[in-house]
Write a structure and sequence with these properties.
globular, mainly alpha
Length: 76
């Protein structure tokens, strides 16, 4: 095993729940995963470009769900 990075604590399910230990593994070792994108503009406008770019980069990957951080935090 090779450690390539260390990151700060982060909440993944609900921001108010306790922080749990987390390990990141390469996308190729998982059947699912999350890609987090930060944009200065309307993130929904970026969705078609994101879907196309991911598929062009790795044809076996698909963007299935796109959610705004505000919706994830509020539980909507």
């Amino acid at each position: 095993m090779q450690i390539v990075a260390c990151v700060r604590d982060a909440a993944y399910s609900l921001v108010r729940e306790p922080i749990r230990p987390t390990v990141y593994v390469p996308f190729m070792e998982r059947s699912d995963g999350a890609l987090i994108v930060r944009t200065a503009g309307d993130p929904r406008a970026l969705a078609p470009t994101l879907r196309r770019s991911v598929t062009e980069a790795r044809s076996e990957f698909r963007v299935r769900n796109i959610a705004l951080q505000s919706a994830l935090v509020s539980g909507r």
